[in-house]
UniProtKB/TrEMBL annotation:
Cofactor(s) needed for function: Mg(2+)
Record-linked InterPro entries: Isoprenoid_synthase_dom_sf, Terpene_cyclase-like_2
Keywords carried by this UniProt record: Lyase, Magnesium, Metal-binding
GO molecular function: metal ion binding; terpene synthase activity
GO BP, one annotated term: isoprenoid biosynthetic process
TM region positions: none
EC number: 4.2.3.-
Gene source species: Mycena sanguinolenta
Name the UniProt record assigns to this protein: Terpene synthase
């Protein structure tokens, strides 16, 4: 996860060209981990290279191929996010979900659940497993955007935040916006649980164990992300535990 945080922090500081350059550096490091990085290059290349060398020691070829493919999609979306910021482009709710489902990095991250597995692509494309992944992704992005909204609105960087987008497009105040988002989240929980109970069983006992472990890991990922948001100090500082209990947040003043 530290690799994803590095991307989140550093890509927010550059324009479209800078984001594209950093994305290309990271993908080159993933695809060529045994080649030393160039002197003076952005540090993300070496961080990625070392991350991948460690991951390769304990991962299957199936995982490695899938992670590289998903990580490319994720980084391309971060370039798109930088372009939106550079061009001051505001998206509709549907447009935002389409982009944010990738920029949140969940699909690339949850694949780490199968780091020691060999789940065939056909199994991963099963409608119920695909629904689990999609619902988990949306729940994580909703939680992340709600918890990060205060910090982002204060620094004027809430263009890629669901709270700000719903407020603008639906013409709602903050309280009604949170109610709107909460209702959507409740529907996603039900969607996830319905799909969870319909995950297919296969004749291969080992594959069944892997699929069950992966599906359970998706639910744990959603729950773990929620807890992390309060414990990490990233969004609520030292008051995270208090906010988790009271659900009360004082809006920060906007930075001039």
């Amino acid at each position: 996860m530290n690799l994803f945080f590095l991307i989140d922090e550093h890509f927010d500081r550059v324009d479209t060209h800078g984001a594209r350059n950093r994305a290309d550096i990271m993908m080159d490091a993933l695809r060529n981990p045994h080649i030393p990085r160039r002197d003076g290059e952005w540090v993300g290349g070496e961080v990625t290279r070392q991350f991948w060398l460690n991951a390769m020691r304990i991962s299957t070829p199936t995982f490695q191929r899938r992670f590289i493919d998903e990580f490319q999609i994720y980084l391309d979306s971060m370039v798109q996010k930088a372009q939106d910021r550079t061009e001051d482009h505001n998206r509709s709710i549907d447009e935002y979900f389409k982009v944010r489902r990738v920029t949140i990095g969940v699909k690339a991250a949850v694949i780490i659940n199968e780091i020691e597995m060999n789940i065939p692509e056909a199994v991963m494309q099963n409608e119920h497993i695909a629904t689990l992944i999609a619902a988990a992704t949306d729940m994580v992005l909703i939680a992340n955007d709600v918890y990060s909204y205060n910090v982002e609105q204060a620094r004027g960087d809430d263009r890629h935040n669901l709270v700000a987008i719903v407020m603008r497009t639906e013409n709602l105040n903050l309280v009604d916006t949170l109610d709107w988002i909460s209702s959507l989240h409740d529907k996603l929980v039900q969607k996830f649980m319905d799909a969870f109970h319909q995950v297919p069983h296969y004749n291969d006992p080992q594959l069944n164990r892997q699929v069950a472990k992966f599906a359970d890991g998706l639910g744990n990922w959603v729950r773990g992300c929620d807890s992390w948001c309060f414990e990490s100090e990233r969004y609520f500082g030292k008051r995270g535990r208090e906010v988790q209990v009271t659900r009360v947040v004082d809006l920060l003043p906007k930075l001039s």
